[in-house]
Automatic annotation (TrEMBL):
Residues 21-90 form the DNA-binding transcriptional repressor CapW winged helix-turn-helix domain. It comes from Cupriavidus phytorum. This is DNA-binding transcriptional regulator YafY. Residues 218-283 form the DNA-binding transcriptional repressor CapW C-terminal dimerisation domain. It comes from the Bacteria. Keywords: DNA-binding. Pfam families: BrxR_CTD (PF26107), WHD_BrxR (PF26109), WYL (PF13280).
Length: 313
């Protein structure tokens, strides 16, 4: 497809109401990733009548006539060999839709679109705990709760939740801790009986704008581990044709991310094993990040005693 034609199609789509673009995007998704589309797919997904679904399919065909063809025997549309997606489908959203459903159903009714298997989540927060926390984040409020930490056991805390963080293993909350007067990470599953403090004012020093570790973005340069037997495979796995993957991550989360992906952060790439496919080319990029001690092999250039210990472990 020529760039001129692509621009014209984008312009045609922009003229349509947002709700119709969403329906056309669903048609595009079904054709692209499932290889078939029926009028009932649009009716069931958006609860529109058959006539409305027919109009949506006709609109899609008007914009991209070469993208689909009707099989008279099955009354299903299929993508043609010339199919080019009309919409940019984000990988994470696509994989979520394929594995957990695309908003079709409520609660336990959600079903994967194709056979799919993924790791069981062994640590999930209780909804009765999560809901007050997310309300506080959304409304800029403080929360009183009981919290159990590895170092000090159970205690009552007042925190100002700022953001939810998924580190790949469990969820934690980035928050201002009024007990220690600093920003910390709190594991959601270790919280009990959170109560939103409606009448407690949040001070400027407790807001996300004052959290330097959250605001600071670090650029990390990852390369295939020098000891990996097949660096070309690593380049394929991480889409790094030039042998370099640059990512930006918050200082508060860098250590979690590097630990999740088993990135060797030792200065001399000394960690060994098939799990270490990547090496952090410049470990000094982590200097000053409170989460750095979580990174595999990281050595504080000023000595271990000068590095703050991450609390949410």
């Amino acid at each position: 497809m020529t760039e001129k034609l692509a621009d014209r199609r984008r312009a045609d789509l922009e003229k349509l109401p947002r709700v119709q673009r969403e329906r056309l995007s669903h048609i595009d998704f079904k054709l692209y990733f499932l290889g078939e589309l029926r009028r009932a797919d649009v009716v069931e997904r958006f609860e529109t009548g058959p006539a409305g679904a027919t109009r949506d399919i006709a609109q899609y065909r008007e914009i991209a006539p070469e993208n689909l063809e009707l099989d008279p025997a099955t009354k299903a549309y299929h993508p043609t060999a010339e199919f080019t997606p009309l919409f940019e489908h984000q990988p994470q959203r696509v994989l979520t839709a394929l594995s957990q459903g695309f908003g079709e159903g409520i609660g336990d009714q959600l079903q994967p679109m194709v056979r799919c298997e993924f790791p069981h989540a062994l640590s999930l927060p209780k909804m009765s705990v999560l809901a007050p926390i997310t309300r506080a984040i959304n409304r800029g409020k403080a929360v009183r709760l009981c919290y159990t930490s590895i170092n000090s056991g159970i205690s009552e805390r007042e925190i100002v939740p700022l953001a939810l963080v998924d580190n790949g293993i469990r969820w934690h909350v980035r928050a201002f801790d009024r007990k220690h007067r600093e920003f910390r990470d709190f594991v959601v599953t270790r919280m009990k009986d959170p109560t939103v403090l409606e009448d407690s004012s949040v001070l400027q020093e407790e807001t996300v704008e004052r959290d330097d570790q959250w605001s600071r973005l670090i650029e990390l340069e990852l390369v295939p581990h020098p000891e990996h037997p097949r660096p070309e495979v690593v380049q394929m796995d991480y889409d790094m044709p030039d042998g370099l993957l640059k990512i930006k991550v918050r200082a508060a989360n860098a250590g979690y991310m590097l630990r999740r992906w088993n990135v060797d952060c030792s200065p001399d790439h000394s960690l060994r094993g098939p799990q270490y496919a990547l090496w952090l080319a410049d470990p000094l990029a982590l200097y000053g990040a409170d989460s750095a001690p979580l990174a595999p092999g990281y050595i504080n250039p000023r000595g271990e005693g000068n590095q703050r210990v991450v609390q949410a472990l």
